[in-house]
Write the structure tokens for this entry.
Amino acid sequence: MSLVLTNIRASCTHQIVRSGQRAHRKGRGTAIKNHRISIVLGICLAAASVCSLFVGVIDLDLPSLFGGDMEQLKILVVSRLPRLLAILCTGVGMSVAGLIMQQLCMNKFVSPTTGATISSAQFGILLALLFMPNSTLWGRALFAFATATLGTWIFVWFIQRITFKDVVMVPLVGIMFGNVIGGITNYLAYKYEMTQALSTWLVGHFSLVLRGRYELVYLVAPLVILAFLFANHFNIVGMGKDFSKNLGVHYNLVLFMGLTIAALITASIVVVVGSISYIGLIVPNVVAMFKGDRIRGTLVDTALFGAVFVLACDMIGRTVIAPYELPIELIVGILGSLLFIGLLFYRLKHGRRAIRLKGPTFGCGAGAPDLEGGAGEC
């Protein structure tokens, strides 16, 4: 009898070990499949970054660079590399800022463009030019930080007092509020003859990005890391005030902290690059179609896709009419509008259904949110 029991125990132990090994292999394979979008985006970003360094009026070649050609090394260090870093920070920052604002405002049409954040930052730059004509880039950035944060807070204060929050009403309020701020900015610029000085920040472009003129965009990195650390809190706040209180999350504190992060990211980019629309609106929506609506699960892919998108648009702008250059605002506007129209048609036809790739479901697993900002079920 004891021999039979021993054999039964050995057989059960062997089956448990084999089941655990199969589960481990399956879990490892599932993890790889769940991150394959991130891997593909990372590879595309690395390849596009290398190609971007060799696109421009002056040709660079690897033999000259490795041979110590000082002229080519100077072009690489002073112009091409700073431009690439500014592009990456812009794509990552604007995409993450749009993702945060959409989650906190519970509306997929909200972004730094439709939330009056960019218009407020431009107003701050004008104030800096009027009251501190000799101010440095950091001095103008302080004005832009203050006005962008204040303008975003006022926008959210407006929409919190709208009783009937239609999916289109919220961004319309932001667009109207942004146009009011833009009208005041243009009036003051015409009155004090600052139109030409302000025009640099009205259209986004990277042609003036050189070493010593772009380092302000490095602020995007710590702000994005901070957004990732508080991603779960943003998810909870995005589900409503009552839900946040039930889970012990201070609703107003997290709400305005997230909006401040988005405003600081946007202002730091506007001061260096200028106004670039659509990125914060398009990129989070496209990623959400594949990965769901949970910030922690989509933040990395949103940042990667935003960087790839801006880098691709910049390379198109540099090559279409070479040796001349088109502003990236124009390229992003054209491609972004086409993507947005496609997104609208997809949502009208398929509703909440997510685009499913072969293999297990990504992210939350229940599908991407609809345009009304509904979260996928985790």
Notes: The chain has a mean pLDDT of 79.
